Amino acid sequence: MAEHSITRTPVGRRPGRYVLRAVVTAYLFLLVAWPLYLVGRNALADGFTSLGDILTDPDVTHALRLTVVIAVTAVVINTVFGVGISILLVRYDFPGKRTLNALLDMPLSVSPIVVGLALVLVYGGREGWFGPTLEAAGFQIIFATPGMVLATVFVALPLVIREVVPVLQEIGDEQEQAARSLGANAVQTFRRITLPAIKWGVIYGVVLSLARSLGEFGAVKVVSGNVLGETRTATLVVEEKYLNFDKGGSYATAFLLALVAVACIIVVSVLRPKEDR
Amino acid sequence: MTSATLAPDRPAAPRRSVRSGLPLTRVSGLGLGVAMVWFSLLVLIPLAAVAVTAAEGGWAGFWRSVTNEQTAATIRLTVGTALLVTLVNIVMGTLIAWVLVRDRFFGKRALEILIDVPFALPTIVAGLVLLSLYGPTSPLGVNIANTRIAVFLAFLFVTLPFIVRTVQPVLAELDPEVEEAAASLGASRYTTFRRIVLPSLTPAIAAGAALSFARAVGEYGSLVLLTGNLPMRTEVASVRILSSIENDNIDSAAAVAVVLLAISLAVIVVLDVIQRRVVRRG
């Protein structure tokens, strides 16, 4: 497959090729590479002072910790749900499967603000559909960590599914059937046969979900209430510091987030071709 | 395949064929039940709540909210700019995919990674990133902050991967021999592209365009720092919804949200139709 994607140019070496190459490189340079570089430069403009400042600011470190906790929780939930629903979609037959299949992609095309609003309408403590009942039972969802986890799970929902489903379809179910006919139960079949086969798909899905979850902003902003030192995540720190004219702190936090995001992409792009070769 | 680094933007969904499988067993049936309850609590019921809240004010209330001068301006700006950005993406996305699949040069791998950056980068950071090159302290000397061009640029940035990643795998599967045959029969490069390559790419381009349009319409994070959110000028629909929520005007927020949801739903239907047509043809 890898050889196939770098095919020869059908019609020789023409100047047009170099023009296209130059146009594409310039476009990506101006739109992505140069701006990205400048954020790094601005963050490190005064050496590591800004970075040091934010890493010693208890409010920021609290926000960073909260971001990690929320993202990891969301990724775990989405991985379990994603792998489960992928197996159901690929291996089983049930009414409404087609609709479910289409609806699962919905979170990718819904505005994060609408996601936040939707969650507030149902789980809001004052007027939500379930919120007052849950709050009476002692569970606060909105303006608290559970709501932020829900919002993050919502926006990253399809990522694991989109990775795992194609892999499941490709490997087929012969081996699973063989295992079952030899007496393996469902858990054994999953652990010994299915999971090793879909391992890479799951790993990509997890890495992508993690990148997406760490960086979620709009939906979390609506449901968090943005309480300093309590429900503030790293992306909210970037906004707040920028609006409060603490550009150094804002760029430094943004730089940290950008580093993690780029690292996630590089991990995926380094892992993926290996598996295909 | 080296090309598709990031799958979310690859047409994994359109390929997700729904062929028949085993009937549900007791365990898998229970699993499906749990999954459906979770999916309903998380996605379906909240989205339904948006629609119900918008409907509570009646048709007249909904219409009043949506046609409010300031709100209508945000919807016009959002949809108009999203359409424009999608058009640019159709051209540039196809071009980028073409170069990444057919060309070989030093640094191509780096370009592959750049394509995925807008997907993984937090949107608020994306806004800051664009601000550093095109904002008040721009080394280029251009300052587009707080203008409509900033909205356009932010949309362009966040939607970059969609068409590239849907077209790339299809283009890689395309057999160059057909193009060589066309060329050897005297077709010009342009004719070959228009008659041979483009028809096979159209479903992928359409799927990518739909996703890119939906993403742009709902964009929020990258605009916060970049556009200043000036009413009637650079305010987009998502920002309008948020300010309605903050002003405790939930009905109006829900009304605009329903418009955005309708657009998302339309995109999903379009994707589903494209998928069916591709399956039928393949």
Automatic annotation (TrEMBL), chain A:
<dbReference type="InterPro" id="IPR000515">
    <property type="entry name" value="MetI-like"/>
</dbReference>
<feature type="transmembrane region" description="Helical">
    <location>
        <begin position="102"/>
        <end position="125"/>
    </location>
</feature>
<feature type="transmembrane region" description="Helical">
    <location>
        <begin position="137"/>
        <end position="161"/>
    </location>
</feature>
<keyword id="KW-1133">Transmembrane helix</keyword>
<comment type="function">
    <text>Part of the ABC transporter complex CysAWTP (TC 3.A.1.6.1) involved in sulfate/thiosulfate import. Probably responsible for the translocation of the substrate across the membrane.</text>
</comment>
<keyword id="KW-0812">Transmembrane</keyword>
<feature type="transmembrane region" description="Helical">
    <location>
        <begin position="66"/>
        <end position="90"/>
    </location>
</feature>
<dbReference type="InterPro" id="IPR005667">
    <property type="entry name" value="Sulph_transpt2"/>
</dbReference>
<feature type="transmembrane region" description="Helical">
    <location>
        <begin position="197"/>
        <end position="215"/>
    </location>
</feature>
<dbReference type="InterPro" id="IPR035906">
    <property type="entry name" value="MetI-like_sf"/>
</dbReference>
<feature type="transmembrane region" description="Helical">
    <location>
        <begin position="18"/>
        <end position="37"/>
    </location>
</feature>
<keyword id="KW-0764">Sulfate transport</keyword>
<dbReference type="Pfam" id="PF00528">
    <property type="entry name" value="BPD_transp_1"/>
</dbReference>
<keyword id="KW-0813">Transport</keyword>
<feature type="transmembrane region" description="Helical">
    <location>
        <begin position="251"/>
        <end position="271"/>
    </location>
</feature>
<feature type="domain" description="ABC transmembrane type-1">
    <location>
        <begin position="64"/>
        <end position="272"/>
    </location>
</feature>
<protein>
    <submittedName>
        <fullName>Sulfate ABC transporter permease subunit CysW</fullName>
    </submittedName>
</protein>
<keyword id="KW-0472">Membrane</keyword>
<comment type="subunit">
    <text>The complex is composed of two ATP-binding proteins (CysA), two transmembrane proteins (CysT and CysW) and a solute-binding protein (CysP).</text>
</comment>
TrEMBL record, chain B:
<feature type="transmembrane region" description="Helical">
    <location>
        <begin position="140"/>
        <end position="164"/>
    </location>
</feature>
<feature type="transmembrane region" description="Helical">
    <location>
        <begin position="113"/>
        <end position="134"/>
    </location>
</feature>
<feature type="transmembrane region" description="Helical">
    <location>
        <begin position="196"/>
        <end position="217"/>
    </location>
</feature>
<dbReference type="InterPro" id="IPR005667">
    <property type="entry name" value="Sulph_transpt2"/>
</dbReference>
<dbReference type="Pfam" id="PF00528">
    <property type="entry name" value="BPD_transp_1"/>
</dbReference>
<dbReference type="InterPro" id="IPR000515">
    <property type="entry name" value="MetI-like"/>
</dbReference>
<comment type="similarity">
    <text>Belongs to the binding-protein-dependent transport system permease family. CysTW subfamily.</text>
</comment>
<keyword id="KW-0472">Membrane</keyword>
<feature type="domain" description="ABC transmembrane type-1">
    <location>
        <begin position="75"/>
        <end position="271"/>
    </location>
</feature>
<protein>
    <recommendedName>
        <fullName>Sulfate transport system permease protein CysT</fullName>
    </recommendedName>
</protein>
<feature type="transmembrane region" description="Helical">
    <location>
        <begin position="253"/>
        <end position="274"/>
    </location>
</feature>
<comment type="subunit">
    <text>The complex is composed of two ATP-binding proteins (CysA), two transmembrane proteins (CysT and CysW) and a solute-binding protein (CysP).</text>
</comment>
<feature type="transmembrane region" description="Helical">
    <location>
        <begin position="75"/>
        <end position="101"/>
    </location>
</feature>
<keyword id="KW-1133">Transmembrane helix</keyword>
<keyword id="KW-0764">Sulfate transport</keyword>
<comment type="function">
    <text>Part of the ABC transporter complex (TC 3.A.1.6.1) involved in sulfate/thiosulfate import.</text>
</comment>
<dbReference type="InterPro" id="IPR035906">
    <property type="entry name" value="MetI-like_sf"/>
</dbReference>
<dbReference type="InterPro" id="IPR011865">
    <property type="entry name" value="CysT_permease"/>
</dbReference>
<keyword id="KW-0812">Transmembrane</keyword>
<comment type="function">
    <text>Part of the ABC transporter complex CysAWTP (TC 3.A.1.6.1) involved in sulfate/thiosulfate import. Probably responsible for the translocation of the substrate across the membrane.</text>
</comment>
<keyword id="KW-0813">Transport</keyword>
<feature type="transmembrane region" description="Helical">
    <location>
        <begin position="29"/>
        <end position="55"/>
    </location>
</feature>
